[in-house]
Every structure is written in C-alpha cells, then in structure tokens.
Design goal:
Pfam families: Abhydrolase_6. Keywords: Hydrolase. The chain is α/β, with parallel strands linked by helices and 289 residues long. The chain contains 13 helices and eight strands. The chain has an eight-stranded mixed sheet with strand order 1-2-4-3-5-6-7-8, sandwiched between helices. A hairpin with a 2-residue loop joins strand 1 and strand 2. Helix 3 crosses helix 4 and helix 5 runs antiparallel to helix 6. The chain is globular and about 45 Å long.
C-alpha cells in the first residue's frame, strides 16, 4: 500500500493559522504561515477547490514570505454570494483580501481558475501585483469537452458528495491515478456537504457556460498588457490543456518565463511539491535555479 497522505501531517510542525477575514463584507477563510512583516504571497486554488490545495507549499514559502492560501469567493468556507460568479467578482474579492490584510502589493500564484483570476488581477490592478505565477491556468481558451467534463464531475460531486463522486473529481486533477488521495477527498467531501452547496457549485460553474466564458476569456491584448514579472508553470499531464497551450500563454506575456513539470497533472504544487517549491521560490526571490 502506498503511504497514507494526510493534510495534517503536511502541516505538522508548521507554525500556521487558520481563520477568517472580513474582505469587503465577505467572510473569507484563510490558511496563513510566515512572518506578517515579510512580503506577501497569495495562493489561489481552482474551480470548486479550497485553501488545502496548497498545504504542501506553506512551510517552504513561510521561510521567506507572509504566505496566504484563501478559499476564494463562493468556495470552501468563504461566503457564497448567491449569483453566477465571473472573473471580475473573484478579482474584486481578491483585492478586498489584500486590503483586509493591509498590504499594497503581493505576489500572486494561481492554479487553474486561480491563475485566471491572478492574471486578470495583474491586468486590472498592476499597482497591486509584484510577481505573478500562472500554474496550469485557465482563461485562455474554451474547450467544450473540458468544460463539459468539469461541469459533469463537479455537479455530480456537489449533488451527491459520496466518497466515489468526490474522489473522481480529485483523481481527475492528478497524473498518478493509483493513489486514493483520501485526506483531500475527505476535506472536499466536508466542504461539499455544507447546506446550500449545490447552488454554490452552480454559481461556480458559470465560467464553464460558453457565453459567460467567452466574455471572461483573456486574449493577446490582456496578456500583453501584464507588466508583472511572470512565470507560467505547466505540466506533462494537465487534463485541461496541453503543453502547447501553456507555452502559448507564456508567449503572449512580455518576458514571461515558462517551466514544464513532468509527471504532474493539474496540481503540480501538490503532486511534486519539492520541484514546485524550488521553481516557485527561485522565481519569487530572483534566484537563478
């Protein structure tokens, strides 16, 4: 049997806090590690996700940064506003989080939907963003098959959060399908069992609707206007888009660096935290790995 993976064992021995911020009236859950006086890095998870996507990255980053992983608007244990969520709503919430923690500027690192939101924030609020990391980021294209798959798996998990439906949604993210990801599954099952979560998931799925997605997509003009130093991280086995798409995104952002992580799916920060943390810290700290 492969070793049991536990969120708690990932955080054991790490001085961290879990709590809630008032971000412009939105009760927002966070995980935080590191000296609050240090520069800030904010991690943003993907569609239907939650702060635990980054449990394997808090300790390494806390050595250098005031490190935050939040439940984004309408996700996890953060308030559910009760309307279809578009990228601007997530960006407004993110900026409210920066205001709530009292920082003018932060590094942003987003995976999937989180990367889409981070990129849009860098377009709309250049003065608030230091460096930008787009990790298997969404928002550059509309692939009907992928969109359908996300809706099917996500709604099945929210409408009937059994072990099997939630595990299917988690395994879809990962390159290694042989593991059970039990603790991540248990955490997400608890999230999805909250009263009213089916309606919340429908609001999250708005960006998988072709018409809504079309008006939120980022193109050459948006990516080309990003002034923050940017690293695009892609993987060999990303289920949402191939390596060529990752390279295309990087090619549109002035001066962007591109890094490919082999043997990972949609969550390289979890599947290969050692490589991810090294690449990430080298980039944020300006070290040349």
């Amino acid at each position: 049997m492969s070793e049991f993976e536990s969120i708690w064992s990932d955080l054991q021995g790490v001085p961290f806090s879990q709590g809630y911020l008032d971000a412009g009236g939105v009760r927002t859950r966070y995980l935080h590690a590191g000296d609050p006086g240090n520069p800030v890095v904010v991690f943003l998870h993907g569609s239907g996700g939650h702060a635990e996507a980054y449990v394997r990255n808090l300790e390494a980053h806390a050595e250098h940064f005031s490190t935050w992983s939040i439940d984004m608007l309408g996700h996890g244990y953060t308030d559910k506003p009760g309307y279809p969520l578009e990228v601007q709503h997530y960006v407004q919430h993110l900026i409210a989080v920066l205001d709530a923690i009292g920082v003018e500027r932060a590094h942003l690192s987003g995976e999937s939907l989180g990367g889409w939101v981070a990129a849009r924030a860098a377009v709309d609020h250049p003065g608030r963003i230091d460096k930008l990391v787009l990790n298997t980021a969404g928002g550059s294209q509309a692939d009907p098959e992928v969109m359908k798959r996300i809706i099917t798996l996500s709604m099945a998990a929210a409408e009937n959060p059994t072990w099997e439906t939630v595990q299917a949604r988690i395994k879809w993210l990962m390159a290694d399908k042989s593991k059970g990801y039990d603790d991540i599954v248990a955490s997400r099952q608890r999230v999805y069992r909250q009263p009213g979560f089916v309606a919340a998931m429908k609001d999250i799925m708005a960006l998988q609707d072709p018409q809504i997605r079309a008006r939120n997509l980022l193109g050459a003009a948006e990516y080309g206007s990003i002034t923050a130093p940017t690293m695009v991280v892609w993987t060999s086995d990303d289920p949402t888009a191939d390596v060529a798409e990752g390279r295309r995104i990087a090619s549109m952002i002035p001066g962007a660096r591109f890094e490919l992580m082999p043997g990972c799916g949609h969550w390289p920060q979890y599947e290969d935290p050692k490589t991810f943390n090294r690449l990430h810290l080298d980039f944020l700290l300006g070290r040349h790995g």
